[in-house]
Design a protein that fits this description.
The complex is a heterodimer of chains A (285) and B (240).
Chain A lengths: L2 H5 L2 H26 L3 H21 L3 H22 L4 H23 L3 H5 L11 H20 L1 H9 L1 H7 L3 H23 L4 H15 L3 H26 L3 H39 L1
Chain B lengths: L2 H6 L9 E12 L2 E12 L3 E5 L6 H8 L7 E6 L2 E2 L3 H9 L1 E4 L12 H6 L14 H13 L15 H13 L5 E5 L7 H17 L3 E6 L10 E6 L2 E4 L3
Parallel strand pairs in B: 3-8, 3-9, 6-7, 7-8
Antiparallel strand pairs in B: 1-2, 1-4, 4-5, 9-10
Helix pairs in contact in B: 5-6, 6-7
Classes of the chains: A mainly alpha (285), B alpha/beta (240).
């Protein structure tokens, strides 16, 4: 079956649209995750998702909504918890991660709910996307782009130096909390799209490559978005062409994108150096 | 009031007026009061040094002066403003240049020029976005610190001494009346330290700034008008 024939199927259209929306915008958050050293909060939020799923199973609700709700609440609270306990965000994430994992296992043990149903949240399936998943992803995409444009200079100062941000009067605590919440919501959506184990393919891989190629934050955002689209689009195309699982194909393309960013960076640098030499020669003459 | 209008209203000190005045100030963090009933005054256009070992409260003092840490008791006046409300604190921050010790370059790509432009935050011509006026000011400040040739370079690739010169340009791009230097030469080699201090002294005089330098290194204080030592909860003038 060709890609165009596949696109005639509603679930496939949703899968492609969902992945492209996420691919074009979630890597922007990936740039922030790398810069704020938030890598570890991904794991913390996944485990809170597991606890949310367990709670949902106990009260008889769809574990997906329990997981997404748990992640949303935890991402909102993680910043204030870190600040109140005077821990750095990574240490606070460790606290939240182990605490929620312990609670989830206690719930499984005491209530006898099927633990595997909660663990299924980690698998994700882009082919199972529903309209509400699409809506969540689309709203997030708009919010991420809007926030990146409106608060660009504020974000730039906070990422550059948090002490400088405070001295200038930038509301750095509020900015940090909003970014954490956005990252959490996007992780919740990405777990649904590609599963917890492969979500780095959507967030971190294009961002890592973008940070090598962009000469300032705005260009890193643009590169991240473009490379995210390449990762998502390329993953879908390869998946269809050689009959591979979509999530794994997307992750493989993401790894290749990071690999290609190294020689591309060297080429860009050589071109820049050459231009610098030409300019200097012109000045000398 | 727009940022542009605010920029026009500068503090005009009378002769001998205090640019910084702390009266019986007690401040610290949740039950741990680091500064206790401190009195401290800096005359306008003076270059004052504050020394003391690491962890003694120098950064707390700087945070109090910048209005970043609320005081438990006492009065803080900076550039003629009593820092009791957010509007006054914002007014003072818009007129204060801040140079910290060399920071970790991190992962974020940023050109030298853009990193200087960040210092205009709060004074941007178009509220959220810099305009031609901001860019001209950034170019002029880069020129002042002798770093114009590096405007398009990646900030992360500069040496420590070059980064601090650019950071000085960032502090000055704000058109400050008060310049606060928080351990500005830490991690720099002797040559870079001398070069940066020479530049700071020149700028202090040529821009008629009130400059407060906080450091643990007594050797940096040779060019200051007076030196104060922070010891425990007290601050006292050092007599040579």
């Amino acid at each position: 079956m060709s890609l165009f024939e596949m696109l005639s199927l509603p679930f496939m259209r949703r899968a492609v649209l969902g992945l492209m929306l996420a691919g074009g915008t979630f890597p922007i958050l990936g740039v922030l995750i790398v810069n704020l050293n938030l890598q570890v909060i991904r794991f913390a939020l996944m485990h809170v998702g597991l606890l949310g799923g367990a709670v949902a199973l106990v009260v008889g609700v769809d574990p997906l909504w329990g997981g997404v709700g748990g992640i949303a609440v935890a991402s909102f609270l993680l910043g204030p918890i870190a600040d109140r306990t005077r821990l750095n965000t990574a240490a606070a994430a460790g606290l939240v991660m182990t605490g929620s994992l312990a609670l989830a296992f206690i719930l499984f043990y005491k209530t006898g709910v099927p633990a595997m149903e909660a663990f299924n949240l980690f698998a994700g399936s882009v082919l199972m996307l529903q309209k509400q998943d699409m809506l969540l992803t689309a709203v997030l995409a708009v919010v991420i782009i809007g926030a990146a444009i409106r608060w660009y200079r504020d974000i730039q100062v906070v990422l550059f130096d948090q002490r400088l941000a405070a001295a200038l009067g930038v509301p750095e605590t509020a900015i940090r909390y909003v970014l954490l919440t956005l990252v959490g919501l996007a992780i919740a959506a990405a777990i649904r799209l590609v599963g917890a184990l492969l979500l780095d393919a959507l967030f971190l891989l294009p961002a890592m490559a973008a940070l090598r190629l962009g000469k300032n934050l705005s260009r890193a955002f643009i590169w991240a978005s473009i490379l995210g689209l390449v990762t998502a689009g390329g993953g879908i195309a390869i998946s269809v062409a050689v009959d591979l699982p979509i999530g794994a194909s997307v992750a493989a393309v993401g790894v290749a994108v990071v690999g290609f960013s190294y020689p591309t960076e060297v080429l860009i640098r050589r071109k820049k150096d050459k231009k610098g030499v030409v300019n200097n020669e012109t000045v000398d003459v | 009031m727009s940022a542009v209008l605010q920029a026009a209203s500068q503090w005009k000190p009378q002769s001998g007026a205090a640019a910084i005045s702390l009266e019986k100030v007690t401040a610290g963090y949740e039950g741990d009061m680091i500064l206790r009933s401190i009195d401290f005054e800096v005359e306008a256009r003076q270059f004052i040094g504050v020394i003391g070992p690491n962890g003694i409260g120098k950064t707390t003092l700087f945070r109090v002066i910048m209005g970043l840490l609320p005081v438990r008791s006492g009065t803080v006046r900076v550039l003629g403003r009593h820092l009791r409300d957010e509007a006054s604190r914002r007014w003072v921050r818009l007129r204060t240049g801040y140079l910290a010790q060399q920071n970790d370059p991190g992962h974020m790509p940023i050109t030298v020029f853009d990193s200087v432009l960040l210092g205009r935050w709060g004074r941007f011509q178009y509220r959220y976005w810099p305009g031609a006026k901001d860019r001209q000011r950034a170019e002029a400040m880069l020129d002042l610190v002798g770093m114009s040739a590096y405007a398009d370079s990646d900030w992360r690739e500069l040496s420590g001494g070059q980064q601090q010169r650019v950071s000085l340009a960032r502090a000055l791009v704000r058109t400050p009346q008060l310049l606060i230097l928080d351990e500005p030469t830490t991690y720099l080699d002797d040559e870079a330290q001398k070069e940066l201090m020479r530049l700071i002294c020149d700028v202090h005089r040529s821009h008629a700034l009130t400059t407060l330098m906080i450091s643990h290194d007594r050797r940096l204080m040779n060019s200051t008008d007076a030196v104060y030592r922070l010891t425990g909860s007290r601050i006292e003038r050092v007599v040579d």
